[in-house]
Amino acid sequence: MAATGGGGSGARSCFVLGASGVTGQALLRELRARGLFARVTLIGCRRLSLAEESGTAVVVVDFERLSEHAAAFRGHDVGFCCLGTTRSKAGADGFVRVDRDYVAQAAELARAGGCKHFVMLSSQGANEHSRFLYLRVKGEVEKLVQAVGFDRCTILRPAVLLCARQEFRPLEWLTQRVLGAVAWFFPTAYSVPVQTVARAMVASVLQPGGGKVEVLENKAIHQLGKAEPQLGT
Question: Please, are residues 231 and 36 in contact by the beta-carbon 8 Å criterion?
Fold first, then answer.
C-alpha cells in the first residue's frame, strides 16, 4: 500500500534531513515501523549505523556546497526536515548557518526536485522578530521555507522535547526532569515526548491538508501524535 499525502496523491518516496539527532532517529524508527514509503533516503554529512542496519539508503552531502548535490533531492514525494544544531556546539554563526541557511537551501533543492510536501521541525515561540537568536532564526527559516512554494508545507512547533540524548546537557537534563513532572498535570502545555513528535510528522502526511501551509503548535502535535495513522490504498 502507498501512503496518501495531501491532495490524495500516492507518496512513494521520502527523504529525511537530520536523521542523526534524537528527533530524526525517532522519525526513522517510525517510518520503518509504518512502512509507508517504498523508498526512504537519509541525506546527511556522514553515514549512520542506524540507517545501515535497516538497509535505508544514505546520501552523504557537503552542506557547504549543497547546490552540487541537487540529485540527492530529486524524485521524492515528501521531505522531512529535523536538521539543526545548538549555539553552544556550533557558535552563533554556525547555528544560523545550519538551522536557517542549510534548511532553506535544502527546501529549494527539494522543491526543484519534485517534492510536493515538506514537513519541518521548528520550535514553540518561533518568531522572526524575536530578540532571542534561537527563536528568531526558527522564525526566519519558517518564512523562507514557506516562500519556496511547496504544494503543502507542514511546520511543527514543539515545546521542550522529552528525550534521552547521548550527549549530556545539564540544563536541558534538569529542564526535562522538571517538565516531565509538570506533564502529569499539564500534558500538552510545556513539553512533548520526542516519539510523539515523530509520530505527528508521519501522521501529517496521511491527514488531509489544512491549507497550503499548516503550523502545528505543541497541543496539536500531541493530538496528531497520538492518532493512529491510516494507510491509503
Answer: yes
